[in-house]
Amino acid sequence: MGGKSTLKDLAKILNLSVSTVSKAINNSPEISDVTKDKVRSIALLNNYSPNKLAQSLKSQRTKTIGVIIPDVLMTFFAMAIHGIEQTANSYGYKVIICLSNESLEKEAESINTLVNGSVDGLIMSLSKETQSTNDYAHFEEAIRYNTPIVLFDRTSDLLICDKIKIDDTLAAKEATEHLLKIGCRNIIFLTTIYGTSVGEKRRLGYLQAIENTGVEDTIINIKDYAQFECILIEALKQGKIDGIVAADELSAISTIKYSIKHSYKIPEDISVIGFTNGVLGENFVPSLTVVDQHATMQGSLAAETLIKRLEKKIPVEPVHKVLKTSIIERESTLPLFYAK
Amino acid sequence: MGGKSTLKDLAKILNLSVSTVSKAINNSPEISDVTKDKVRSIALLNNYSPNKLAQSLKSQRTKTIGVIIPDVLMTFFAMAIHGIEQTANSYGYKVIICLSNESLEKEAESINTLVNGSVDGLIMSLSKETQSTNDYAHFEEAIRYNTPIVLFDRTSDLLICDKIKIDDTLAAKEATEHLLKIGCRNIIFLTTIYGTSVGEKRRLGYLQAIENTGVEDTIINIKDYAQFECILIEALKQGKIDGIVAADELSAISTIKYSIKHSYKIPEDISVIGFTNGVLGENFVPSLTVVDQHATMQGSLAAETLIKRLEKKIPVEPVHKVLKTSIIERESTLPLFYAK
DNA sequence: CTGAAAGCGCTTACAG
DNA sequence: CTGAAAGCGCTTACAG
């Protein structure tokens, strides 16, 4: 009644000491059942609930995990958040979210504000800038505070910590091989996420796949969506492209969109495969064949790993989990039995 | 060096009292410049940064705001988060995110865990279940704790607090009128968010728009996406539908997708208008004409309002801000000059 | 079985 | 200008 009640308030009402009340509420075996009952009913009556801040200060644990990701608007990260949140909650943990907006500085700020008492641990996917400059000085703070970090998706070999990811090289290799299998012979790799670890590895996988197949390698790197159409169409004019591996969801969709606009038929003329199993690709016409990176699962595993680490339920060596990706065949690629 | 340093640590090193060190660090005028300098250099050397938990316990302010939304995967909410996060950060606030998953129970849990010390205030958009059962008992806890709440988008008249929203009725009316203007005469309203305040209001706006125009009202309410195609096509067969107002982004896209699949031409046969200006509608072919609800702006305003409320920079009467929506004309509706 | 005391890390009114 | 003391709300080792 009228604001939050504290242990002190209850103690006064009950004519007991704060310690006794505390123990009663925490069901300590030290306390008699009679007292426990009395305390509990008064606690209920006064809607008592312990102050989390005070508990955290005492226990040095917040039961909160910090999540720092580049962007909520990318389907992949929205799905990952979903997984993190669900799993964290099931273990009784809350989630604080910070967005780096692909900026190293904001990533650093986020680490610094979270690390000092606000969270027990961190789940991160690195910003573009961090990955391209390879500058990890801003992680020092987290290390000094002994705050465990779990990296997912966009990870780095220079950071020693738990990691959840997919084998991007292998995934892109398989995606490219899928195009080869259905008969594509002029396959290009298109990326708008150049500079990220995953973009780089996917490029590598593409190159590995076409090695010794006689397919020539063409990498298209688009920095600005404003020039997407122009660059893509120019490339399509060069050779008779029949397959495109796009490094993320939106660029795959854009590829299809502009190709169709310029009278290329998808998948008859060009088969397109993308990354991330999101609503965008699922609902597009033609629907997008994608490499499923199991975003929700990555998030969920990251949360589980972090929590087990915090609760010391896993061995000290860093966890390095690599999820198997799978290809979801949809309409943007020729079906296998069509194979020329 | 080796873990976090506290005021006590610094005091010991400096041979000063904890109080003096605290004041020096907070640049209190009570302290001499010489001492301040000494304290600061030692603080820097030991990477001292104050423990947020302890500060919060003392000041009874966490500088954190809790956000409870139904779903991150809906573009609208992802955009809103983006706005909230950005604005909150610019004011030096952190953001804790909880997802209700459209469930009243989870919404209640989130309120309860956040309200007790973890956050200074709450930004919420109500879950479907909360809105359809009209049960607000779980808000009691927030009220008792005197935690200010700002509601956005999915609000309720039964809750007295700050609110940021759009005029959904008017927006749907304008959307429908847009279809009328381009010549549509058989317009249906399609919704998958029946039971939410916004869904209901949009339905009303549609009805208002067609009143006295001779257009017959047809409401299609789809509960399960598995039946979307079937229900939609059945409806299209009934009459010669030439316009569809869809209550959200995904249902608009699905409408277009299945219509095209069944050989209807968009927009030549049917013009489709949806809600939310997201990547999905923007990149679809044909691109989607939408009512822009200014999701990011709603989030940003919600954050600003909450923070001003917390810092007592606005009058006590609840803020009720209604954003003007705008229609973004794209390819899924006939252009105006085509009007029959 | 109950309570007084110390302490988590900080701030601030009060003395000196 | 500096410091001792109290307190934010809790927990827990120690006495009784």
From TrEMBL, chains A, B:
List each coiled-coil range.
none
UniProt xrefs under PANTHER family: HTH-TYPE TRANSCRIPTIONAL REGULATOR GALS (PTHR30146:SF109), LACI-RELATED TRANSCRIPTIONAL REPRESSOR (PTHR30146)
Keyword Transcription applies: yes
Q: For this UniProt record, give its keywords in alphabetical order, as a comma-separated list.
A: DNA-binding, Transcription, Transcription regulation
Q: Which organism is it from?
A: Gillisia lutea
Q: What is this protein called?
A: LacI family transcriptional regulator
- Supply the SMART domains for this chain: HTH_LACI
Q: Which Pfam families does the record cross-reference, listed alphabetically?
A: LacI (PF00356), Peripla_BP_3 (PF13377)
Q: Domain (HTH lacI-type): give its ranges.
A: 5-59
Record keywords: Transcription included? yes
PROSITE patterns per the record? HTH_LACI_2 (PS50932)
